[in-house]
Model the fold of this input.
Amino acid sequence: MNNPVPPRRRSRLPLSLRRRGVPWERQRPTWREARPAVIAQALKRSQARPSGNWYVVGPSSELRAGRPVGRTVAGQEVVVWRAADGRPVGGPGICPHLGAPLRDSPVRSGTLVCHWHGLALDGTPCAGWGPLPVHDDGVLLWVRLDEVGGEVPLDGPVLARRPERGRALTAVHVGTGVCEPEDIVANRLDPWHGAWFHPYSFVDLTVVGSPDGSGSGAGDSADAGGSADAGDAGDAGDAGDAFTVDVSFKVAGRLVVPVRAVFTSPEPRTVVMHITEGEGAGSVVETHATPLGPDELGRPRTAVIEAVMAASDRPGFAVARRAAPLLRPLVRGAAGRLWRDDLAYAERRWRLRSTGRFPG
Done:
């Protein structure tokens, strides 16, 4: 076994010294366990879950007093800003007067004032402009687009269980790829590729539980000890579709952090990773896929918005929270490196699907 500490045992120190492992090319192959049908069926069930027509717009931290946030979501221009009392409000990003982009307009005392002719919008219907439901969960901004989603609307977005904001270090990475949201979700519902495709970040990876009731078993990876209870992930309605993984995150050299992680998909455009055992138990990584609209060649574009919410009950973690402004760029950088590779695969998956060449 290469993983020095099974995730079920917690050492006094957050890091472990990994025994010297096998070379990358000699690690145990995972292609037999990563059965296309298992991934495809998990994706199909994910796409059938209700979203209530909610889409992630971007990080909450982008929404500051005085300036709006403008995005194109599923081909629709939307604009969001903060009212005088701090509430997020928003609606179509096209001025109903002569079509000016409202994202370029300033906010004065909670009112967005169109910079083209001065139409003032306070978040209530005005001159043919109507508001859209907006939600700020403290980490991410969401907008509800009922005409686009076509589902039964929900009062708020489907959210996974998260650590308390006051004890978590949060960071959000945003990237864009030429693909559709399902290509992003499918990538995340394949945990078997982690140690092969991202050896700079993951080692000793074993999938110990998957929706078909199987796991990778023993091998050169972590001491699995059986599948974790998927219900530990805390996502109602999708616990039966959990992928449970024992894996070590690489820090530097042979220093690693061994954990058990559970991947679930609570709605069609979201995959959540909960750390259920090991260092940082209770931490969450949410991967959201937001359709943007076609590019100049008519190809679909999708934003990957990944929110990392790290938590720990170690006394020293309070220091890390206080150093959050310095640590966030490092966390975003690590996520960005992973998504540089994963987006390349998601784009390739879309190209193969769109030309009828995707296997299966």
